[in-house]
Amino acid sequence: MQLVDENDGDIQFLGLLSKKERRVLGVLIEKSLTTPEYYPLTLKALATGCNQKSNRDPISNYDEFEIEDILDGLRQRGMISAVQTAGGRTERYRHRLRDITPWTAAQLAVMGELLLRGRQQLGELRSRASRMSAIESLEDLRRELNQLMQMKYVQSSGDLSRRGIEVDHALYTEAEQSRPGTMLAYSSSDGPELPNSSSDESKEESAANSAPKFVSSPENRNQVVNASPPSEELLDLQSQISDLTETVQRLEERIDSLERQLGV
To answer: Which residues partner with 181 through β-bridges?
Structure first.
């Protein structure tokens, strides 16, 4: 399929993003890696991806008019492009994050997953992001995350070598950062502030072991989880279930498309 890229908008550093902008970019990242045969996406496909029930937190219900407004803003910031298929009438959209960031494929998958779900523990993140790009071990994930933290795209609740640490993207808006429960305030000039005191780490470990904790993403507050991270087997099973759910949804979309073409 030949594509004509309408590359409007100057390249800018990826900055703070609204909740809807994060969802749109996350979907474009995900679909570019998991279903490249259907990528770039039409507006309708993008709306379906934003509102799908699997691999999303929170669940959304955006209409195409809302998404079209978001796309216009992202195009002006140089983060996406509109493309036309040769002889096609429907405009399609693709992200330009590999052009405007130095992210590797694994880092792109990690950022896509964080944009779609928010704050996560390392085991969860590795399992979920691996469906988009191979991340063989937690050590590989830590290496990618450390680079993203140095580039100020990711923030952490502590040293990545410690047990039970959670990470999140660092692209929340200033209004979101001011709300209780946001992990760390993001600044374009300052990197994430990690605990550097052994006494602070001891207090944090003690508190984590004595009580349940809250997943404190501004998009997922007040959800209580166990202090100990889930097993790798459970995370793999959850990832497989999510993948199967997404596969079923893609098959349903293809059936609907075929029925429309056949006039059924």
So the answer is: none
Distance from C-alpha of 201 to C-alpha of 199, rounded to nearest angstrom = 5
Measured CA to CA, the distance from residue 155 to residue 177 in angstroms comes to 12
Two structure tokens written together for 126: 């590795």
Give me 224's structure tokens: 């209580």
Measure the CA–CA gap between 156 and 191, rounded to whole angstroms: 11
- Whole-angstrom Cα distance, residue 144 to residue 142? 5
Shortest CA distance to 115 belongs to which of 33, 240, 28? 28
Backbone φ, ψ for residue 91 (5° rounding): -75, 140
The span from the CA of 35 to the CA of 39, in Å, is 7
Q: Per-10-residue mean pLDDT for the chain, 264 residues long?
A: 46 78 98 95 96 93 96 95 80 94 96 96 96 96 96 92 92 88 46 38 39 39 41 56 65 66 63
Q: Enumerate domains of the chain plus CATH numbers.
A: 3-101 (1.10.10.10), 105-191+212-238 (1.10.10.10)
- Under 8 Å between Cβ of 191 and 206: no
Q: Which phi-psi region, left, alpha or beta, contains residue 228 (left: φ > 0; alpha: ψ -120 to 50)? A: beta
Given a contact cutoff of 8 angstroms between Cβ atoms, the answer to whether 52 and 249 are in contact is yes
pLDDT at 226: 41
- Identify the bridge partners of residue 4 per DSSP, sorted by sequence position: 84
3-state secondary structure 171-199: CCCHHHHCCCCCCCCCCCCCCCCCCCCHH
Angstrom CA distances, 166 to 64, 71, 183, stand at 33, 30, 9
> Per this entry, what is the length of the chain?
264
The answer to whether the bond into 195 is cis (omega within 30° of 0) is no
Q: Which two tokens stand for residue 220?
A: 């997922």
